[in-house]
Hints:
Elements: H1 7-20, H2 32-69, H3 76-85, H4 92-101, H5 103-113
Helix pairs in contact: 1-2, 2-4, 4-5
Amino acid sequence: xxxxxxxxxxxxxxxxxxxxxxxxxxxxxxxxxxxxxxxxxxxxxxxxxxxxxxxxxxxxxxxxxxxxxxxxxxxxxxxxxxxxxxxxxxxxxxxxxxxxxxxxxxxxxxxxxx
Length: 114
């Protein structure tokens, strides 16, 4: 009895991986084992760094808000505490954007909080 192998599914699986590895350098793009390893590692990095990206942006927003409130004699933590006391529900992303691109509006918020 001949040996039965599911070549169709195996080929499709390999083609899918090779398609994802397209654009990589050297053997990573055309040698199956290298491409598979490279892709697995790349996907691990992508998963991890989606979380890291959120962390980095929050950090950036905090730095921008802090830089924006310092000229008015406040620190970031004091400013955020006063915002919460006044029940102003602006998130850090919006506050950082205002501090950078719309300083007069940001100044009005700071003055209202003070």
